[in-house]
Records
---
Amino acid sequence: MFAMILRTQWAWTRVLVALLALIAFLTPVFAWRISGGNDRAPGAMQLIKGLVLLGPMLGFLALFGSFVLAVYPWTIDAETKHVYPLSLPITWSRYVGMRYFAGALTLLVPALALYVGNRFAVSMITLPPLLQAYPGTLAFRFLLAALVAYSASFALQYLAGRRATIVALLLVLVPTLIFAAAELAGARGFGDAVGRFLFEWPGPFSVFSQPWVLIDV
Amino acid sequence: MSDRPLRHAAALVLALTCLTPCAAALGAQTAAEMSQRIHAMQDSLQATRARYDARRARATLPLNDSIVTDGVTVLFHAALAARDRAAVRQGIADARSLLDTRFGAGAAKLVEGTVWSIMSVAQFDGRAPTAGFVEGRVPRERSRVVGMPLRAEDVEDVVLQRAAHRLLDRAPVVAAFTAGTYDFNEQDRPLYIAQKMLALSASSVARRCAAGAIGACRTILDSHAADQWFAATDTVPPNGRAIPPGVKASVLGVALELGGTRVIDALARPQASDDAVAILADAAGVTPDSLLHSWTTQLQAAATETAAPPFPLAATAAFWCGIFLLAATRRRPQ
Amino acid sequence: MTDAIRIRDLTWRAGKEFALRDLSMTVPTGAIYGFLGPNGSGKTTTIRLMLGMLAPEHGTIDVLGHAMPKFAHRALAKIGYVPEVVHLYSRLTVDEAMRFHKAFFATFDDAEADRLRRRFGLREDQRIGALSKGESGKLMMLLALSQRAELLVLDEPTDGLDPVIRREVLSALVEYVDVHQATVFISSHLVHEQERICDWVGVMDGGRMVAELPMQEFRSGIKRLRVLNAPPTRDAMPFSVLSRDEISLHHEDWVVRGWQPEMREWFQRSGAELREIQDLDLEDSFVELLRGARGVTTEAR
């Protein structure tokens, strides 16, 4: 059963996954290039500064790419109001679980592409002494971030259904308004507490706030 | 009451006195005379401010409560809630525990016997509730400001910072060596940052030290030659020095790790030498080269932490993914 | 003999209005049950409740011995379902859809599926999204029949299909039932089609079950009576009057259900005269049942 779910997942999302993988592969090279990196043997500080954009770029890629991969298969099921999966002889939670893991597995492709891209980018430069490349660690962090973003998007879509977009907007707007109101009222503690819960370990999105480095000491 | 109006007035007066047309208003005949009058006005303003500060220091803010916890006295000059008191107790306990655990029993003496004052202060924008947290019986405006409600980790951080200052005050040479920057709490991975700064430095000597060359480390850590080893072959960065004080402070950290409370006691003794590395090595009971070897080894080990796969992070991510998946299965489409 | 489907006091609503109210239904095992009703009467909703896709507000549903929706996944393993609208993944091909379906139903018969595919003229590489309405209908029937299901639930399976395809689909269905003795629950508003294959009829209107009776009784037991000097009261009638229309001052047309020839005596005893007995075809019977349920009468002009 899972093999079939995986096959359909792949059939529906392979173009998206391929695009995500291509972007992930090119991002390390692109980040180095747009920072003005043309020197094959850059200095240590130049190299570190040149790749400072890499983290945010990969973070956004993990966030938005995973969101699309979580939502798109749901829309295909929603075309027929989920009648087919509901008519299959499995519980709904089992179907959702299989759909989830099928999508999560496809995230391995862009993570692997990022690993290859990292190694390719590093191969283009001569590392200064004392600096090392961490292509695997960065790709692993990307995978973790993508999985968390995928899971959150998946849950939002399956819980909110067709109202997911509105709920997502509310989830962004309402806290923003609350934080702004708290800031104006001087009650900064609430906003700080929520931010710490979400983005500091062991919060759900702490993986996004961890350092994303390809080259370091 | 803030002394902002006084400062603003002083600035305004000084500005006005710099303008030549105002010289006549001051009744000055020459530039030198004008300068003397400006200085006299500055002295007068500073005297006024000193009297104001003294008055504030003597002012009796209401003492709402006081507690003695783990040998530390805390005076509450503000109305604080029970949870704030709990945060203070917890923070002080955590500070003591950290010192004892890392540096040995007795390291907490850096904290014991101290007296602290907590009072309400207004931020410059007057909106956010904050507390002033300062060592001493007299509340001062120049205190460490922490957010309200109090958090144990903030209390711990303030207490440990003061403990570090107290330790450095005992050994002025070491204080100068570290520029007064050592933090017992070490939440920002100081060894990793130190190694990174050395490795990224424009100075080749620093880079050789990062690679483990003890001689190069001796050179850059030499109190006398701190800013002179750039002269020969290195490019001097715009700020004049490539090695931030935090790098040297990490040497103190390694000495404390090696010697524990022995270092704390030794630094209190009179120092014959002005070589900070030698003082720290002697205090830790090792040779200077041994101290530097331990230091560079720890620096390199800290750097390789980046390479380690973040398993705790992975476990946390897996946990939250599981929560999200569970949530997703709760609703059947209708 | 246990019942394949047993529904009691089923109530369900979407929003403020009740879509189904106190619905009760029994489908005997081995029966071909025709579920009739006008558009919007709640047939598809009933089917979805029956298959566990919706949860009732009140009442019980048992399908093949399993309580629904709690044990829907167990019952669905033995149910072949053909919905009104194509529910298959449009991006799959016919072959992929067959393999996907097979992965979930252990009783899926590959050989039968292939035989039906060739019989229905479907190509393996045809994308489902590109199939015509008739081809989609045939594919859905193919999958349901290849499952070797004990119960087939068909929601308007031939709606919108041309007569040739309709006959093909129904013929395959009848063959399947003959061979496997399966129970069939077929929902439709095409009364004449139901008449040919069903042996039980359930008529639904406005979210309620209006009548549930064997097809034979449906066919022969509903009559239109031309009555002269009809009695004013209807006490102790041996039949149920579905509708009563005044034709002229003394003549009335009654549509009755449950008519037996010996019931003529009742008219004699009541002083009325039974002038004529007309047979109604299934469609007229269906319409009269609905009129009776809605309480529609016609006054003489």
---
Amino acid sequence: MVNKNEIYIEISNLNVKYGDDVALNDINLVIPKGEVTAILGLSGVGKTTLLNAIAGIIDYSGEILLDGQNIKVKDPLVGYVGQDFGSLEWKTVKKNIQLGRKIKKQKEESSDFKRIVDVLDIKKYLKRYPNSLSGGQKQRVKIAAVFYLMPDIMLLDEPFAGLDVITRDESQNLLHELNVEYHPTVLLVTHDYNEALYLGDRIAVFSQSEIHTFESEKINKTSKENLKKEILDMMKGEAF
Amino acid sequence: MKFFKKYVFPIIIILVIWQIIAIVFKQNFLSSPIETFRYMIKSFNSQILLHAYYSVIRILIGIIIAVVIGFPLGMMLGYYKKFDNSLSPIIYFIYPTPKIAFLPVFMLLFGLGDWAKIAIISTIVVFQILINVRDHIKLMDKKVYYHLIALQAKDIEIFRHVLIPAAFPKLLSAVRISLGTSLAVLFFAENFGTKYGLGFFITDSMMRINYPAMYSGIIVLSIVGFLLFLSIDFLQSRFVKWDKKA
């Protein structure tokens, strides 16, 4: 259990409907500050919908609190990378990366910019437009944009999918480093169990509109094989 | 070489066909291109340039006014659903009406001078822009800028960073589509209440049975249209570098 003092985001009785379809039904989840919460679950269980609700993109009923206050009132700096958004095709790669800071009127940090661009290996196409890049390269641009923004809350919806093995490892390492340095609160939706285990301080497993959370203590104590079995069973709904 | 193939070569073919027709039919009203160009060179500075100047100014001001009104309004209609719901019925009512029917109204409102002609061009172009831009914004997937909504970007920033650049190619397409009609209407409108403009020059030359002058006017009007099209292509290549389909 998360200590009450450590709760940063508190989601209570969250319901989301798309017309008559229920996307999220009575979801409750607490997220501590400065940690990476990896979210695992089968396709269509509502992982992306949860991120959209936190980002304030979709309407919902229920409560999402940040430090005890409505998240919309608190107006935190939220960086969001989705499966099919995160960069604008009419802006060059460089301008896409800088856009978040420009909108939030934050000053440029050239050393951070250089570091992120170097690690993600996008220096050579900073002046190009996203639609001239491959899928993997575009993904790197989106990751660079959200990393450079250094937001309070990072919502990452399968950010490393579609990357080659080397870039994926380096991007994951960079996220890990940034996390150690400035402690953003990260919600990482992934289908990759190993990625969740490597990056996540905690793992939230979505199953049939319920969420079961594995805290870091349990993750560290349980053997990898047992943990994997337990998580997979939960995803299938067998543990409930 | 590319320019020659694309533009000069077709023009040469048209001129050759025209010359052949003029020789074969030998009609008084069918001036040959040689006669026409001889007249054009002779009277270009003294007459044609002045008429072309008036026509170009009218059409440019007409387009600029249409863009200034139509582009922001089209974006707002596409973005704000309530605004669209309240204004669209009026637009749908006016849009199908042939805009030339408004010419007498504009003449009464603005007099017989330039402004009635400019107003009719603006009216033609503005609806094309409005509908094109509005539909483009409406059909745009909002996911494109989800990351900006998450940042709680203000509407003005959404307009600046998303809607304006996204809709700009549609604006150019709308102007391009309406150019032909605008030129036709300008030709018609310049036959009323003015002694300057290519429309007046062409009709006046016909009345005076000065056919080389008449054809010179038609050619210059075509060149004006051609240059306007090229200008739009230039704007497209300059400001829509990101769109490979453009």
